[in-house]
Amino acid sequence: MRNLLVKSSAVSVAVLMGLVSSAALSQSQSDEHTYFGPRLGLVNPDSDRWIFIDGTEFPYDSGFSSLAYGLQFGHRFSNNWEIRTYYDRLNTDVDGASSGSGHMYGVDGIYNFRNGIYAGIGINNTRFNQEKDAFLRGTLGYRFQLSDRWNMGIEYAIQNDGDFTDQYAGANLNYMFGFTTARPAPRPEEPSDPVDRTTDSDGDGVPDYRDQCPGTPRGHVVDEDGCTIYVEQSISHDLVVNFEFDSAEVQREFRGDIEELAELMREHEGVTVEIAGHTDLIGPQEYNQELSERRAQAVKDELVNRFNISANRLSTVGYGMTRPLYDEISLEVNHRNRRIEAELSTTEEVPLTEEMQRRGY
Known about the structure:
- This protein is of the alpha+beta class.
- It folds into 2 domains: 2-180, Porin, CATH 2.40.160; 232-351, CATH 3.30.1330.60.
- Helix content is 20%, strand content 41%.
- It is built from 5 helices and 14 strands.
- The strands form 3 sheets. An 8-stranded antiparallel barrel has the order 1-4-5-6-7-8-9-10. Strands 11-14-12-13 form a 4-stranded mixed β-sheet.
- Strand 8 (131-145) and strand 9 form a beta hairpin.
- It is flat, with a radius of gyration of 36 Å.
- The chain starts with a helix and ends with a helix.
């Protein structure tokens, strides 16, 4: 079984290297480089691994407990394909006994994606103390540039030989030295037609030949490239709803004001609103506190149930009789104090228009 796995691993890598070579030949304008650098990681040995010491069998420590350190050397053939070889020393931790040693070495064919992620397949030889095994190994990693010449990779690998499955997690630091493949000499430019420097299809004052934003709406102020200029604009809206004496029922006359607030909340989806309830100065403080909370909740229910505003964008609070508009008791003042207050305030980017400029924005 193990010999068959080794043979299939070699075939897999040979096929992969054929693809690498083909990709290198087909991408004659890509950057090539060779790299070299140190590796440092941890190995999680298979739980079935054991070691005999003086006739006693001991298991290896579970988890990523065995230190691996070494060097790697690789060559990148194209923007995507590369091959690398590596060698790691192992300090193996044994549960209940002194630590041992070993090594790992192998070769990987690697494909690099554009976002820094890379994946590879290869063959590996691992020795835990006196036990040697050949593995098929898969790798997944992420590489990022530190400078023009230096990059760092973080990777995870898993390897299997039919009996054991070991895992590796580590990092590598690489110095690149190499060259850029020959590029064909640029062809001389053919004479082009005279540039039309007068046509301005969208009428924004920037001619089409250098307008990077064609089709700008009429009336927008644009920059030198013909693109709309955006400015920050503050938007604020206050809602006040009054209530009858000892009532938390929203009167019909205020539904238009509530709907206006709902429309603004739909236009500005990231805005949240707090609804504050208040009472007049008549009655017990505890009762008025509860009444103010019911009034705030009643307006929230209107926004949620009648105008489909998400409940998690609305909060309520009751202040009872602690924050009157007027600190007195009369028929007119009492009505004004029996209220809820809500404020929507936000800032957004809007196109700068010629009309806004005329008004001195």
